[in-house]
Amino acid sequence: MITFFRAAALSVLALVTLTGAGQNSRPDESKKPLVLSSQGSFFVGGETKTTNTQATAPGGPAQNDVTVNQMYVQYQSPLTGSQHVPVVMVHGCCLSSKTWETTPDGRMGWNEYFVRRNRSVYLADQVARARSGFDASVINAVKAGQAPPSQLPNVLVAGHQAAWSSFRFGPTYNTPFPDGQFPVQAVDELYKQMIPDLNSTLPMPNPTWKNMAALAVQLHGAVLMGHSESGFFPEEAALIDASGVRGIISIEMACTTTMTPQQLAAMAKIPILIMFGDHLGDVQGRFGSVWPENFATCQKFVQQVNSAGGDAQMMDLPKLGIKGNSHMLMQDKNNLQLADLILEWIDQHVEAKKSARRH
Amino acid sequence: MITFFRAAALSVLALVTLTGAGQNSRPDESKKPLVLSSQGSFFVGGETKTTNTQATAPGGPAQNDVTVNQMYVQYQSPLTGSQHVPVVMVHGCCLSSKTWETTPDGRMGWNEYFVRRNRSVYLADQVARARSGFDASVINAVKAGQAPPSQLPNVLVAGHQAAWSSFRFGPTYNTPFPDGQFPVQAVDELYKQMIPDLNSTLPMPNPTWKNMAALAVQLHGAVLMGHSESGFFPEEAALIDASGVRGIISIEMACTTTMTPQQLAAMAKIPILIMFGDHLGDVQGRFGSVWPENFATCQKFVQQVNSAGGDAQMMDLPKLGIKGNSHMLMQDKNNLQLADLILEWIDQHVEAKKSARRH
């Protein structure tokens, strides 16, 4: 294990030296042709629900069946995709899979970059968001007078001011950090990505967790990646069914520190990478304490997993000399540098182990 | 004009003979590598709205700015895409851009097929749907007691029974037409695509129309394609700004028959293709009359545009010997045959004219 860590740390330093910390000096790969062996979209999960308040299509019957809790997945596979473990990316609060695509300032997103690095990539819209749809029955029941307004879902919308602060673009609204990596000149394009979050309508456990676990099984093994609201979803998915979960990448969220020994034993069987950006305590207001608290929970979780014999790693970017990263680090100016760190971690902690097992 | 129509009709007959009516006998092209010159996603439109009822992110300020009315667009360009006019596809009610992707039974969708036929393809999620998000302020205002429940939007959800009937899969629920082209064995996968429709929250004119017109300008000319709820959106977009609209493809909707002479003169400058499937009057219940009525309005619209000197064509598939098509004809078993008809129409009515103009 120690050699893995040392190799990763050394190669991180090499990469930082090569590309310059905080900058992408590589040529624009997005201008080269992209060759796919296949692409497409499908759904995972979903249940039929019969109701007389959900279906309001004119001319339809009063009672209708609808499908809820399904998860929309869009994928692309490169020609050599079968040589690597597929990567499933799940976005955070008030966002969609757009998170991983073209950045607000028009650069290549992680979805395409991972494909260009020969990985099959699966983008999932969380259940109750975007192309996965949501269960509208409570809203229609309140409108019809069948339920009180208090039963309406809490529709979570992160406004511009809340996003600037919670995503750590700068200490106060519209004032960026001098070394900030987020392309703040294009922040309006990020604001367009921010859409209402109806997760409060979901049953528990969140169907996205089950669907992520099922997708990993369907793919005969996958690395699950989550961010922010979904940052710990890969761990939750693995607690439901770890059989397809080959690796976990959790980016900037609160970690659970109250797992049972049995749960920690399950976590210890899966390589886990946790990544945090910069300026965790540097924004004014409530979020100035939220991020250091989240970081502390994840530090503790990493220790717990490793104490149980696991391979969990906290990648604290500033400690690697990579400064200025925001919460939206997959869109930051150095996003491809960070992607390389993740790809290297997958190679060494997920795929090298796979080869090792074969011997 | 007559020669254009005759050429189109003859080639349609040739195609039907070649491929067999109602079947795709071509080899599975989706197994060949797909080469893209570029891909990505971006937004068109969007306005900032300040409100104290919309942003409920915990820890955020009481009053927040949010972005509304933006349209999410995902695109792919083939290597030779610049030789053809780009095609913009917009989905219908209670659906997302998933409409155009992998079919419910796992075949290639029009999005990829058009790219393989050397067109740049732009998929737009309608404003207030899927990755475009929606304005949740009324819902949150009602929950907060600031507005009565009667002001809640009418959230349109097409249930399974309503979809089976309105999409014309068969005469009654779960009974398919013997010659039906929809892959009914996979209808559950279609039901997963059906998501709540919040268009009732939109201002008029619908921001999607303006955004489609703006996208066409941004692309220096595009063919706009709509279906069902969005079937007439290309025409609406052209009435707002026709300068980028090189061609219109309207699939299965009601047409406006009350345009002014000025509006019809604007329509007459744009080649227009209208396509309808089979069994328009063959479903029981209300939709048994809706589709024949819609068809009649479009017949009239075609006559009006052509009387104004335009080039509008009604492609009535059964009249061409192509039987059994449902409302979801881009997902029907013969979907690529229908795509070829559209591509040929674009070549002859949009692009041949472009060449002709050059002489």
Order of helices and strands of chain A: HEEEHEHHHHEHEHEHEH
Segments of chain A where pLDDT lies below 50 for 5+ residues?
1-25
Tell me the major beta sheet of chain A: 8 strands, mixed
Oligomeric state: homodimer
Provide the helix percentage of chain A: 25-40%
Biggest sheet: strand arrangement of chain A: 1-2-4-3-5-6-7-8
Largest binding interface between chains: A-B, 82 and 82 residues
| Overall mean confidence score, pLDDT of chain A | 90
Radius of gyration of chain A: 21 Å
Q: How would you describe this structure to a colleague?
A:
Chain A has 359 residues and is of the alpha/beta class. Chain A is built from ten helices and eight strands. In chain A, strand 3 (87-90), helix 2 (110-116) and strand 4 form a beta-alpha-beta unit. The longest helix of chain A is centred in the C-terminal third of the chain and has 24 residues, at 335-358. Mean pLDDT of chain A is 90; it is low at 1-25. The interface between A and B is large, with 82 and 82 residues. Strand 1 (34-51) of chain A pairs antiparallel with strand 1 (34-51) of chain B, so a sheet runs across the interface.
